[in-house]
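Technical annex B. To support the medicinal chemistry partners, we prepared a structural model of the target in complex with protoporphyrin IX containing FE, based solely on the information shown next.
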Amino acid sequence: MMLTMDPPRHTKLRSLVSKGFTPRQVARLNDHIADMSRQIVDDVMEQGECDFVEDIAGALPSYVIAELLGIPLEDGRRLYHLTEIMNTGTVGDPVAKDAQMQMFVYGNELAARKRTDPGDDIATSLLLAEVDGERLTDFEFNMFFLLLINAGGDTTRNAAGILALLEHPAERARLAADLSLLPTAIEEMLRCTSPVTVFTRTATKDTELRGITVRKDGRVAMFYPSANRDEAHFADPDTFDVGRNPNHHLAFGGGGTHFCLGANLARVEAAAIVPEVLSRMTNLELAAPVERVRSTLMNGIRSMPVRFTAAAVVQR
Ligand code: HEM
């Protein structure tokens, strides 16, 4: 998988897939993401309560990935549920294995379908794009497909960001009263929630990090939540401040070769759904305790029952 490859193979694959992730391509999706966000909130409006993860935060990324891949939106939801089963099953769990098989079957069928019936989507560009005269093999396509569904789904559920707002009512009121703070608020939610907990790197030679020797082939764990609370870098790192600026957090990585390919997209998604939630689901509050995802890799929320008062549709 690209995430675990080194250059030059990584560079080649990344230049193939990044063709679908330029800010221009993401901007093209922009309006559509706004419509989807409105629709997602519309769908729960009447109920006055919902599971924020299942009905809102999980819905948007799975629809967006479906849109990117050029597959039906319901399939996006199905694939997303499969990743949940895969990621929370224990090693060897037959249910998790079955979910993985279903995922690969879907990836194979998708590749076959897009080859005979190409569309204006990232799946087609991935299958047709060439670097140095080479195209992705079916296996590479499948691996990228898996990475995309995983990387773009779990991480981007902004339930944790909304929870941070619920836990800091003064900051929530400040943002709701002045939506021009949205860009800094989103970065602060990313910093404070750090959706990815840890990735590792392997030292290619003996080296030293802040006085600690790391031997060649030794592994270093990078804890993103820790970096994002580095008191040498952030003033009052434990304060949640929706106006924090500058805010050079590392939630998407440290800017190296593996820097998150979906960072633009994730920001666009958050910028669409957060105002929709703040302006239309007033008096939003927890209806029961949140249930967290049991994972060492992701800081995610599995279930977040909420209640709210429906506000009128906002004309934009
Ligand atoms: C809030 C949401 C997200 C967070 C916090 C996040 C975080 C990260 C992090 C920490 C990395 C690894 C960086 C490194 O090792 O240096 C990464 C890589 C990646 N992310 Fe994201 N991500 C998010 C959303 C997305 C989305 C929406 C997509 C795609 C639709 C995506 C696709 C990827 C891919 C493909 C990689 C691997 C890049 C490579 O190996 O070159 N991510 N992400």
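Notes passed to the chemistry partners:
Residues 2-3, 14, 65, 147-148, 151-152, 155-156, 195-196, 199, 251-254, 256, 258-262, 265-266 surround protoporphyrin IX containing FE (CB under 6 Å).
The chain has a mean pLDDT of 90.
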